[in-house]
TrEMBL record:
<keyword id="KW-0521">NADP</keyword>
<dbReference type="Pfam" id="PF05368">
    <property type="entry name" value="NmrA"/>
</dbReference>
<keyword id="KW-0560">Oxidoreductase</keyword>
<dbReference type="InterPro" id="IPR051609">
    <property type="entry name" value="NmrA/Isoflavone_reductase-like"/>
</dbReference>
<feature type="domain" description="NmrA-like">
    <location>
        <begin position="18"/>
        <end position="150"/>
    </location>
</feature>
<dbReference type="GO" id="GO:0016491">
    <property type="term" value="F:oxidoreductase activity"/>
</dbReference>
<dbReference type="InterPro" id="IPR036291">
    <property type="entry name" value="NAD(P)-bd_dom_sf"/>
</dbReference>
<protein>
    <recommendedName>
        <fullName>NmrA-like domain-containing protein</fullName>
    </recommendedName>
</protein>
<dbReference type="InterPro" id="IPR045312">
    <property type="entry name" value="PCBER-like"/>
</dbReference>
<dbReference type="InterPro" id="IPR008030">
    <property type="entry name" value="NmrA-like"/>
</dbReference>
Amino acid sequence: MAQAYAKSQPSGFQNHIKNIAVVGAGGNIGSYIVAALLANGHHNITALTRPESTSVFPAGVTAKHIDYSSQPSLVSALQGQDALIITMAATAPPDQQTSLIRAAAEAGVRWVMPNEWGQDCSHPGLRQDLAMLSTRFEAARQLIEELGVSHWLVVPSGFWYEYSLAGSEWRYGFDFAERRVTFYGDGTQKINTSTWPQIGRAVAALLAFKILPDDEDDKSEAVLSKFQNQRCYMSSFRVSQKDMFESVLRVTGTKESDWNVSYEDVHERFQKGLERVQKGDMNGFAQLLYARTFFPDGAGDHETIKGLHNELLGLPQEDFDECTKGAVEMAKTLAGTY
């Protein structure tokens, strides 16, 4: 397909995204995306929310109530929007996203960021071993393409750093309350991981790109159309569990001898998580999900395999220890002071 240029578009064409609708604007990742979009000052932001939602949005965000059982309600809410960002809990019914994607096409929304956050499920190992996720992600992207109106954008970031470090031992292996850490394998497998603020900045930067090159002489890579139906890779850090542990020791002022350290074969850990899920224990899902990321096939290291767009997005270099400190504080909030 020949390259399109802004200069050749019909009168009235706007070469930037102006109106953005966000589903899950009050959630963990959604709130940071909204904050970053507001900070760049280029967009009108609409939060799509259920009538019973208690979410409070910052000044400058317009709230619209939607009814997932009414397609006309969704289409009406999306009229005039240039982009739709979907951030939902993993437990949300898949048909909700399907309804949103169909409504976006009917409303003429040109860009959709589906509910595909975190790992890069284009990795063949993840696509096979995490089929319950990858199949859902692929179905959403395929539907967007089949409807032929919108383009999808996905921003792989790896797991969320503070959340994953502060959470239960089923994530990055740390239990701060008990000062216990379990290393997967020898603990040196590096993965990409990102903070919520950095993910918000990445999404906002991407959606601030001009849509098309101005003309034949415009060689800028910061063009949104170059990412249509593609992934834009970003990351805060490429680190191992041992790197995380060293940072934890620095920010907590503890020594390794203060911690209960153990090691577990990462493949066995994944299998145990799978067995727990099969028995109905959904903590096993987090266990298998995180364990699979640390396999030595690079599944969690998209930086090495695909490279990063951090520089193109203008992302700042974050302070690793400061982010670890934030995770330690989060862990205190989650589990009580220890």
